[in-house]
Amino acid sequence: MVLILEKYKDQTNKGxxxxxxxxxxxxxxQEVIQSQKFEKEILDEFINHLDxxxxxxxxxxxxxxxxxxxxxxxxxxDYIGYYAKRWKExxxxxxxxxxxRSKVSSDTxxxxxxxYEAVQEQSEQAADADLKTYFKLTNRSQLFxxxxxxxxxxGESFTDSxxxxxxxxxxxxxxxxxxxxxxELYAYQYADYLIDDYHPIFCEDYAYIYEESINNGKSEEYxxxxxxxxASNLIDVKRRYGISDDEDSLNFAKAKAKAFINGWEYxxxxxxxxxxxxxxxxxxAYLNTYYSDNKDEWATIEECERIAIxxxxxxxTSVKS
Length: 321
Prior knowledge:
By secondary structure, the chain is mainly alpha-helical. The protein has a domain at 1-89. It is built from 16 helices and no strands. It has helices at residues 2-13, 18-23, 26-36, 40-59, 69-89, 93-104, 111-120, 124-138, 142-153, 163-179, 184-194, 200-215, 220-241, 247-269, 275-290, 301-320. Helix 4 (40-59) crosses helix 5 (69-89) and helix 9 (142-153) crosses helix 10 (163-179).
């Protein structure tokens, strides 16, 4: 410690930080440093922060005669306390700095995300290492870790609550569904939408169709597209009439979703250049066939879909020619 202080004295005499010498009682500052038992790296960070802090005050003409030693050093001492704690836990310098700056400015919402982003701007590897440190120290589950990474990779915004709280909500909802006997696939999709403030009824229908689609060998894009359309159609009906008050309206909403995804899939598979128009044409053809007054027109849903495709392809070809 004596060596560190001697080095500090030498640096001060050489004008290490002229602005500190200008406004701060250096002897008293050394006493504080000695009482804190700063390590060299921590001491360097403290001096650097105090120098920048005083420079900012001077630039803004915000240093006054009545300012005390504590007034001028307090924020930097608070800063270095926060910084040292994170640095000693194994976090990088940049993570520790961002954390400490946020704490002294009382800007602590989404602190995990902002620390991660600050390091990520400099190095993906360093950001990943800091995340591993965070997960280890907080004893997070693998589900929490994987979902956090997913949200960060997707560039999700967490403006109303912290990312920790959102991912904790996801984890809680996920395990609630598992405990109710749902599959991991269903539980994940349900919780994923629930934390984005979708209605639980929407989440249930979305997860149901998503799981069914994947289990039937459909692609991820198909599953998401169909599940979202299905859940959106049904939530409109269920929130108006109740889940079982109007079966005809519910069945029509389901048929509309099926008509949409059938048209979407055909357009995708056949690389149609105007997929939106084809989907619209197919939806009308499917619903007109499905609800046809001619009860002999089809006997199975497969027949209904085949007839609807033939009608839609014919009309689409005619329109495009």
